[in-house]
Specification:
Order of helices and strands: EHHEHEHEEHEEHEHHHEEHEEH
Distance between the termini: 31 Å
Number of helices: 11
C-alpha cells in the first residue's frame, strides 16, 4: 500500500493528524502507566545528579559529548551529530534530504512520516503484515530514502542487522531509528558500528533506557557529508549543557555496563509478561518482542476504556499505519504489575 502526500488518505487509514499522536496523550491521571515506554524506574540517581550539576553559566560546548559518543560506537568525530532528541533528527533529515520517493516502513514510530510530510515530501508507506517481519523486497526499488525502526515501535520487533543492511542501494539513504537498540543485550542488531555508513543514517536516543524524556538528548551517526548537511540546519547551541552532560555520562564504560544489566532484566520481565498474555483466549501477541513494550491485538474495539475501568492506561494502536482499533501497546513493568494487567485483560476478553 502506498500513500502520496498530495492524495487523500483512504477511508479507515491513519490520518495526518493521527501521526502526531504519542503515548503520553494516552495517560490518565491515577491509572497505572503502561502507555509510555520510558524506563519506569526513572532517571538513575547518579545520572540525575550529574545533570543537575551541569554548568549553565557558559555556552554549551559539544566537543566532549560528541567525542564521547564517537568513542562509544567506535566512530570518527565527524560521523556524529548531537541533537535535541530523536525528534529533531527526523526534522533535520526531512529538511536536508531531497527524496524523489521517500518510503516509511510501517507499523513504526510516526514522527519520521510526519516530518517528511511537514517538509513537503511525497511519502509512500510499506505496511508489513503480521507478524511484521521486514522483507527488503517489499520496499520499492526506486525508493531513495527509507525509514525503518529497529527494534520497531510499536511492534517491538528487532529486525536482523543483515536485513537492515540489505535495504542499501546505490543512491538510497536508509534511516534506522535505533531509539530502543539498547533494549537488546549487546545491542546485537544495531548497525551503529557498521564500518562504512555510506547510505546509512542511525538515530539514537537517551530517552528510553535512561528515563530522560524531558531532557531531549539524542544523536545521529552517519557519513561525514551527511552529518555536515544536517548540522547546517541546526541553530547555534542546539543541545543544552545538561543534555551534553548526559551524553558524556551515558557513553562511559560504567554506564554501558548498567545499560546491559538493565537490558537483561528487561528481557526477563518481558518474557514474564508475554507468558501471562499467551494464555489469554482471543488475544494475539506479536511474537519475539525485543524492546521495552509488547504489541497486542485484542480484537476488542473499546479495550482501552475497559482497561481504564480496571486501573490501566495503555497506548492505542490505531494511530499507527497498519493497525486497527483493538490493537494496544503495553509497556513492560515489574512482574506484579504484569500479573495484574493480564488478569484485567483476561476479565475483559472473557466478557467481550
Amino acid at each position: 500500500m502506498t500513500t502520496r502526500a498530495s492524495e487523500a488518505l483512504t477511508a479507515g487509514d491513519v490520518t495526518v493528524a493521527d501521526l502526531a499522536h504519542h503515548g503520553d496523550a494516552d495517560l490518565v491521571p491515577g491509572l497505572v502507566d503502561l502507555a509510555v515506554n520510558v524506563r519506569s524506574s526513572g532517571t538513575p540517581r547518579w545520572l540525575a545528579a550529574l545533570i543537575r550539576d551541569a554548568d549553565l553559566s557558559a555556552y554549551p560546548d559539544q566537543r566532549p559529548a560528541a567525542g564521547a559518543v564517537a568513542a562509544r560506537h567506535g566512530r570518527a568525530h565527524s560521523e556524529v551529530l548531537l541533537t535535541a532528541g530523536a525528534a529533531e533528527a527526523f526534522v533535520l533529515l526531512a529538511r536536508a534530504l531531497r527524496p524523489r520517493h521517500a518510503v516509511v516502513v510501517h507499523p513504526q514510530f510516526t514522527e519520521p512520516e510526519a516530518a517528511l510530510r511537514a517538509a513537503g515530501h511525497h511519502v509512500s508507506r510499506v505496511v508489513l503484515p503480521f507478524p511484521f517481519a521486514l522483507k527488503p523486497a517489499l520496499v520499492p526499488a526506486d525508493a531513495d530514502v527509507v525509514f525503518v525502526g529497529n527494534p520497531t515501535n510499536p511492534t517491538s520487533i528487532a529486525h536482523p542487522r543483515a536485513t537492515i543492511l540489505a535495504l542499501r542501494r546505490p543512491g538510497r539513504t536508509v534511516v534506522v531509528d535505533e531509539a530502543f537498540a539498547d533494549c537488546l543485550p549487546a545491542e546485537r542488531e544495531s548497525v551503529a558500528t557498521e564500518p562504512d555508513l555510506t547510505g546509512v543514517v542511525v538515530i539514537r536516543s537517551l530517552t528510553k533506557t535512561w528515563g530522560l524524556a524531558g531532557l531531549r538528548a539524542g544523536y545521529v551517526l552517519a557519513a561525514p557529508d551527511v552529518i555536515a548537511r544536517l548540522a547546517a540546519g541546526q541553530p547555534p547551541w542546539p543541545v543544552s549543557s545538561p543534555a551534553l552532560t548526559a551524553c558524556v555520562a551515558t557513553a562511559s564504560a560504567a554506564a554501558l555496563r548498567e545499560a546491559a544489566d538493565w537490558a537483561r532484566e528487561l528481557a526477563a520481565e518481558r518474557a514474564h509478561l508475554v507468558a501471562r498474555l499467551a494464555d489469554l483466549r482471543g488475544i494475539r501477541v506479536v511474537p519475539d518482542p525485543a524492546a521495552s513494550f509488547v504489541l497486542l491485538d485484542t480484537g476488542i474495539a473499546n479495550v482501552r476504556t475497559r482497561l481504564h475501568a480496571r486501573g490501566f492506561a495503555v497506548r492505542r494502536g490505531e494511530t499507527f499505519p497498519g493497525l486497527a482499533p483493538g490493537w494496544i501497546r503495553v509497556a513492560v513493568r515489574d512482574r506484579m504489575t504484569s500479573d495484574r494487567f493480564a488478569l484485567a485483560l483476561r476479565e475483559i476478553a472473557g466478557h467481550a
